[in-house]
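Proteins fold reproducibly. Take a sample protein:
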Amino acid sequence: MHSLEPEISQLHLAGHLDGQAAQRFAAMEHGAVFSLYYELRIIGYAAVLLVVTGIGLLLKEHFDRIGPVAVAWIIGLLAAGCYAHALRSRWRGEDRSIIGDYVLLLGGMLVSADIAFLEVQFHWLGDRWALHLLMLVVFHGVCAWVFDSRLLLSLSLAAFAGWMGVSRHLDDLLSSGSNTGQYGMRALLAGLAAWVGRELNHRSARRPRFDEVYEHYAINFAFWGGLMWCGQLRTLLAGVLLTAVLSAGAVFLGRRRRSEWFAVYGVVYGALGFCLACAQLLRDPFLVSALVLAAIAAGVSLLRNLHQQIREASE
């Protein structure tokens, strides 16, 4: 394998790189220094999920002894501690670390759990129980703006999907007799709302890091709408056409931006739409299974080719 260390040394001798930069680039070249950014992100997210799960199991175990009011207070105080940690960093003018980001995410998830718990226990909103999701949309959105947190923005958009009734019906796609077709339009409206949020944020230029989050949610919401239409025979044609257009657009955008995520969206959702269409139109389970396996094989092959193309374009 060709090493760039001689070129780095030449740049250092020519005065284009200082000593520290030359040492850092040389260390990166022979593998002594490498980034753990994404690995730390995955570990942080897994840790938050484990902590929330552990808190939930602990409180469930002692629920009868401490009562619902005490449980709500405990969850609220834990969430307040997470937000206090973020506020202290903000007041000091310090940049949050990766750990700080996930402590803030933990606080947001605890707030969501606390509000949902209170509604289930006391039914304060009655038949309008879904309004608690709208409250979370606003709360997480405001906190995301204040703390410049993409993770809290993700919570806000996820709560928005729940309020629109989209996320609750994704599990019904493969259920016989499910009536998910009517929620396809809601998913498309959610995607449109996320894209409008992206445009407004982009024009304000105050939170440029939020653009990517809005884009990912917008394209996922739109694909969910297409899949929901594919799950009903009467909306199958519209669902197939929508999913095909979105898949082609996502792959094109992924190649243009050199972003593998959009390419993955296009291929995976396109394959799912094809499988749902086959399940609706064909009654032979063996033929459907063969076509599903063929779609999976074609998707894997296409993803490998796109990965290679994007990597070559990035070099």
Remarks:
- The CA atoms of residues 191 and 220 lie 7 Å apart.
